[in-house]
């Protein structure tokens, strides 16, 4: 794939090690790509604040950033794309969830700030900054995502019929932690928008992933590589499979197929 001009990768479980760091090998390979004019972009479930706090924004400095599963694209320090659940839409279903599941741990992400009715670090250890609230008086703004601890498959089965058709949900692999997002949000949609903005055809884009929130992008993009630790559903539709995130899988694949 010598014609690749844009490399996009999920972060947790893909580009990052299990210790949530970029390995020296990965940093070196990404820097070599940029020296050749190949753009490097993370596409992550995390927001910009967390990436900055954990030193993931420098060395290399990314060419653009897709955050919160595709709700925002940052390019040249500006937001060039933003999608989410409106306050009016949230108010149409959140009170129903609170009434039917009073014990649910619920958090709402608005403008890079989490508002939660529990200690958010219980399920998102890297999210140090959040505002504790009963969720009755949230600020105006687009809701980038909701994170909920639903505790069991039985609860999820009861919850799904109460969710409106303008959102979608999925659990984080191996947990009953639920992500809820607008159907306007996906990594695939954000990647397509960014490729258009950069005037790079999708045939010259490669995407790396590992989890359920990467499935739509794997379905719609021509070049998609799963790491060895990815879920089986992703591996089945991948163009290729590389080594795991802890074995520099993304870096080694790039080195062997792009550089």
CATH architecture of the largest domain: 3-Layer(aba) Sandwich
**Number of H- or I-type helical stretches:** 10
What gap, in angstroms, lies between the N and C termini? 9 Å
What's the overall geometry? Answer: globular
Note poorly predicted spans. none
Query: Helicity range of the residues?
Result: 25-40%
User: What is the N-to-C order of secondary-structure elements (H for helix, E for strand)?
Assistant: EHHEHEEEHHEEEEHEEHEHEHEH
> What's the average pLDDT?
90
Which fold does the CATH topology of the largest domain refer to? Rossmann fold
Question: Would you identify the CATH H-level superfamily of the largest domain?
Answer: HAD superfamily/HAD-like
Number of strands: 14
What structural class results from the helix and strand content? Answer: alpha/beta
Strand order of the biggest β-sheet: 8-7-6-9-11-10
Portion in beta strands: 15-25%
Number of domains: 2
Global Rg: 18 Å
State the name of the first-level CATH class of the largest domain: Alpha Beta
**Largest pleated sheet:** 6 strands, mixed
Describe the structure in your own words:
With about 260 residues, the chain is α/β, with parallel strands linked by helices. The protein folds into two domains: about 5-85 and about 185-255, HAD superfamily/HAD-like (Rossmann fold, 3-Layer(aba) Sandwich); about 85-180, 2-Layer Sandwich (Hypothetical Protein, Haloacid Dehalogenase-like Hydrolase, Chain: A, domain 2). About 30% of the residues lie in helices and about 25% in strands. It is built from ten helices and 14 strands. The protein has helices at about 10-15, 25-35, 50-55, 85-90, 95-100, 155-160, 185-195, 215-220, 230-235, 250-255; strands at about 5-10, 40, 65, 70-75, 80, 105-110, 115, 130, 145-150, 165-170, 175-180, 205-210, 225, 240. Strands 8-7-6-9-11-10 form a six-stranded mixed beta sheet, with no helix packed on it. It has a five-stranded parallel beta sheet with strand order 2-1-12-13-14. The chain has a three-stranded antiparallel beta sheet with strand order 3-4-5, covered by helices on one side. Strand 3 (about 65) and strand 4 form a beta hairpin. The longest helix is centred in the first third of the chain and has 12 residues, at about 25-35. The chain is globular and about 55 Å long. The mean pLDDT is about 90.
């Amino acid at each position: 794939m010598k014609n690749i001009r844009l490399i996009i990768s999920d972060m947790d479980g893909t580009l990052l090690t299990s210790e949530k760091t970029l390995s020296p090998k990965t940093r070196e390979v990404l820097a070599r790509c940029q020296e050749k004019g190949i753009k490097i972009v993370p596409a992550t479930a995390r927001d910009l604040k967390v990436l900055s706090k954990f030193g993931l924004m420098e060395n290399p400095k990314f060419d653009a950033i897709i955050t919160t599963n595709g709700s925002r694209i940052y390019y040249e320090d500006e937001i060039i794309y933003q999608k989410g659940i409106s306050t009016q839409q949230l108010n149409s279903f959140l009170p129903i969830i609170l009434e039917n599941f009073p014990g649910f741990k619920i958090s709402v992400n608005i403008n890079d700030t989490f508002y939660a009715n529990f200690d958010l670090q219980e399920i998102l250890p890297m999210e140090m900054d959040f505002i504790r609230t009963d969720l009755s008086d949230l600020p105006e703004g687009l809701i980038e995502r909701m994170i909920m601890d639903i505790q069991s498959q039985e609860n999820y089965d009861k919850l799904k019929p109460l969710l409106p058709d303008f959102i979608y949900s999925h659990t984080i692999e191996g947990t009953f932690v639920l992500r809820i997002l607008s159907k306007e949000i996906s990594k695939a949609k954000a990647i397509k928008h960014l490729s258009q903005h950069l005037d790079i055809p999708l045939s010259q884009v490669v995407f790396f992933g590992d989890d359920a929130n990467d499935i739509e992008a794997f379905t719609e993009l021509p070049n998609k590589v799963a790491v060895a630790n990815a879920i089986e559903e992703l591996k089945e539709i991948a163009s290729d499979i590389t080594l795991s995130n802890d074995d520099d899988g993304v870096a080694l694949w790039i080195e062997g197929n792009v550089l």
